[in-house]
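Before relying on records like the one below, remember that each one covers exactly one chain. Contacts with other chains, cofactors or solvent are not represented anywhere in the record.
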Amino acid sequence: MEAPLSDSGYRQELERRLGLGHLIVFGLIFMVPIAPMAVYGFVAKQSYGMVPLVYLVGMTAMFFTVMSYRQLSREFPIAGSVYSYVQRGLHPYAGFVAGWLIVADYLLVPSLIYAFAASWLHGLLPGVPLWVWIAAFIGANSAINVLGIELQARANFVLLAVQLVALALFLVSAVQFVFIARHGTGGWSIAPFYQPAHINGHFIATATSIAVLSFLGFDAVSTLAEEAHDPRRNIGNAMVLALLLLGALFAAQTYVAALAHPDYETLDAELGFFQIGQQVGGRWLYVLLLLANVAGAVISALAAQTAIARMLYAMGRDRALPGGRFFAYIQPRFKTPVNAIALVAILSFVLAVWVPVETILKLVNFGALTAFMLLNLTVFVFFYIKRRNLKSIFRYLLLPLLGLAIVAFVWSGFDRATFAFGGVWLAIGLLLGISRYKNFVSFESL
């Protein structure tokens, strides 16, 4: 059953083309099924080689926040994600702040991904300047984005298949290397999952902090609520299934990698997984995995650009941002927020070319996790306090408060630079929200 958008005070402008499968693929694409390959060496050194355990911890930690998203997506099946949910479930001003924070995440993620992908290709073809790769990626993704969500859904399936084929070839090569040729551990080992000498409170804290940040992006599915069939059911289910599938894929590929190369201390922090690929399959597998990561990065940036365009569209439609009419404009033929897409493309190029990656990372993490805290709090306040669903202790009290506690724990571990960058962005949002507060759509009119 379609959720009538008029129930939320809006008219349908975007095209509903996406089913549950499309939404799951979108979530997978955003988080990148082969993402551990890019950071395997670093994570292995931080976790004493227990990389698959780290990802299972992260999946479990984020599950509570995913369930909060699921509850709110059923109640408010509209575009805007955390902005719309907190605005309606907690308070309009809090919703603006949450939206402002997640905008930092969605806006910066594409530029971050473009910078990484360009650097990888620059390593293979050093004669091509970084900015040329970045411009090419942004141009292609923007064109797909403008032409419509259906075209992007097709591109998602193709590039997801590329990643999964590369992953399958790695798994087959690594299994042959370990279990047939008897290299690496020569067989099964529990060490990548459990080393009692290193399992303690500090390890769990470190593992949680690393892994939670690896799962950021599942929430982008909620920005497609107005382009999805049966959003009350499919949006939340897609987020849950995408998280569980990603957790399984992350654990599987890192476990096999650990079996193939148990001496994690000898790995390069940035190219460790690709080194293992060359070890088990040769130079061809090294190049294939590298190119698959580039493809994964580019399509993930496309998903991120889609998400932030929908976020800006939702906030512009409510006139919660300066220039709201500009962001709310929908191209009549393709039914896409073309102005928001174009602005994101320009900003992504500027940020990817001129802003250090370390700076972008700090603001991305701060914005996303601060918004997640507000979202978990909203579930508790809206359903347990306002609606007085006092009997649903597990669903509306324990789950959201556990999600809030876990995210707050990771948030508290940020370094001073992250708090400095994030604090400035938050302060701007607080002041802008105050100046725009009179322009918020009131609940009574929705």
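The longest helix spans residues 283-317.
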